[in-house]
Amino acid sequence: MIVCELRNQIKVQRAMKNITQDELAAKIGVTRKTINTIENGKYVPSTILAIRMARFFEIKVEELFELIEK
Length: 70
Prior knowledge:
- By secondary structure, this protein is α+β, with helices and mostly antiparallel strands.
- It is built from five helices and two strands.
- 56% of the residues lie in helices and 14% in strands.
- Helix 2 crosses helix 3.
- The termini are close together.
């Protein structure tokens, strides 16, 4: 059985744009708690949400999220 982990660069991207979790959430139409749980790896975003986030940061989804197989 393959175990996977989804790592992300959301915190780094937010820092580069100097925005809070609240501000990011408002821009993409979710709650701050959703951003927090994705950022901390406790929740895997839907494909649509991942694309929205990548578009907001003007990067590819693969640059924002990385699938690690263990």
